[in-house]
Amino acid sequence: MIKVVEVSLRDGLQNEKLILPTHKKKALLQKLLAAGVKEIEVTSFVHPTWIPQLADADQLASQLPFAADVNYRALVPNKKGIERALQTPIHEYAVFISASESHNRKNIHKGIRETFPVLKEVVEEAAGYGKKVRGYVSVVFGCPYEGKVPPSQVVSVCEQLFKLGVYEISLGDTIGVATPTQVKEVLTLLAKEFPAEKLAVHFHDTRGTGLVNAYVALECGITTFDSALGGLGGCPYALGASGNLATEDLLYMLHGMGLNTGIDLDALCETSRWLERELRKKLPSKVLQSYPKKKHRS
Ligand code: HMG
Ligand code: MG
Asked: Which of 155, 233, 241, 298 is most buried when burial is the number of CB atoms within 10 A of its CB?
């Protein structure tokens, strides 16, 4: 069974010009649940000035429908963020840091070294409430300000994050520059230090390499994949960081390979069609483009 972490409500919407109202986000959440998605990154408790698209985090996260076996997740950057998150029924938090100094400063206004104590506070506070914390490392395969990121720097950031107590690290190709050989190189290096079960991948499909990178990650033993409906998404602090790997495209590949995700691909495509109408734009997923306008189910 492959674990798919659906990030469209957070990573997907955080880069959109059109701000989806809270009730529409709730509708999207219901549709994801109906499609069988179990791992849902709902929102982000960051500063609303920096990410206005998710300014309704507290409101949305307080209205989550109960759903058995569903893990609701949210990004939590600091102490203020966890204070807010703890007022809501979110099950699992995610802290984030970059593998490059410049992206970290642009994204969260701190150097890498000064970020760790802030994240430590979040992980310790979360543990006191029995909450699991995932770690994200951004710009693992390339930085919009510094270019290539040395893999040894990625290993060092991951090492420090695991030491803080995160249970898993998601490796982000934030600007979608990774190539299959690079993915293999970085994952091979990381596998010498950490078990593959503790690593996840978070590809952006900006240059069309998202799916092949996911395939390589699968071959390297990774079983947790982040993706967003229709291929929505990006980091506002990484120029050109458009498009997460589309959940539809990932599922088509995985299901075609005989791997189970527990998610209904048709139901997801219908949801993406709905989202295209709400956002008034076409979504880039290849599978969605080939999905019939009106599907007649037998
Ligand atoms: P800051 O301005 O440096 O914080 O923000 P500060 O500690 O200096 O505080 C300044 C003011 O902000 C204070 O208020 C704080 O209370 C308030 P004042 O006293 O002036 O009235 N504040 C907050 N308010 C609400 N919620 C908070 C919060 N923290 C402080 N959590 C901060 C630091 C990290 C919050 C800010 O820089 C921020 O929100 N940045 C946004 C970063 C972001 O969301 N980026 C996108 C997500 S990362 C991503 O997309 C990559 C990923 O997908 C992986 C990949 O793709 O590779 C994960
Ligand atoms: Mg991302």
From this structure: 233
